[in-house]
Design brief:
This protein is α/β, with parallel strands linked by helices. The protein has six helices and five strands; from the N terminus they run E-H-E-H-E-H-E-H-E-H-H. The protein has a single domain, classed as Rossmann fold (3-Layer(aba) Sandwich), CATH 3.40.50.2300. It starts with a strand and ends in a 6-residue tail after the last helix.
Length: 166
């Protein structure tokens, strides 16, 4: 059985958290979505997911959080072998240039999304990054074709000759 792949959303404002989760709801058919409102709660979820033998394919993380900030969490994930490959996105309206540069340089930040965001842009970024993750880490990319970038997955299957659907 293939590992379950999670999307982790870390945001301390409940209405913003709900909005992000609502905007990416189409991905929930194939990716479990977990939510945390602090970096500490996110760490506990990450540990629980990893301990269950599953993976975190994507994290969407705010910068300003109670306790440790989002950039600290993303850098920590980058330095951890178990979450190094997780695609990382900073969604914030308050990260300064220094924090953003640190996230890019030390956390392998894939995208920075300024608040407020456009739903279509967020969905496009999530689709792109999860497609990247699946093509690198799944033996069954065809399974994810209906919610991810089907054209890229089909091209990958054609070029690699790897066709599995179970």
């Amino acid at each position: 059985m293939e590992k379950k792949i999670y999307i982790l959303v870390v945001e301390d404002e409940p209405e913003v958290l709900d909005s992000i989760v609502r905007d990416i709801s189409d991905f929930e058919t194939l990716f479990a979505v977990e939510m945390a409102d602090t970096a500490e709660e996110a760490r506990e979820l990450i540990r629980s997911i990893i301990d269950a033998g599953d993976e975190i394919g994507l994290i969407l993380c705010d910068h300003v959080l109670p306790g440790d900030n989002g950039v600290e969490l993303l850098v920590e994930m980058q330095n951890n072998e178990e979450t190094h490959e997780t695609r990382k996105v900073l969604i914030t309206g308050q990260a300064g240039l220094q924090e953003t540069v640190r996230a890019v340089n030390e956390a392998d930040l894939k995208h920075y999304i300024a608040k407020p965001w456009e739903k279509e842009k967020l969905v496009s970024i999530v689709r792109e990054l999860l497609t990247d993750y699946i093509l690198e880490h799944s033996n069954k990319p065809l399974y994810y074709m209906r919610v991810l970038d089907g054209e890229r997955i089909a091209d990958y299957i054609r070029k690699s000759g790897k066709v599995t659907d179970s």
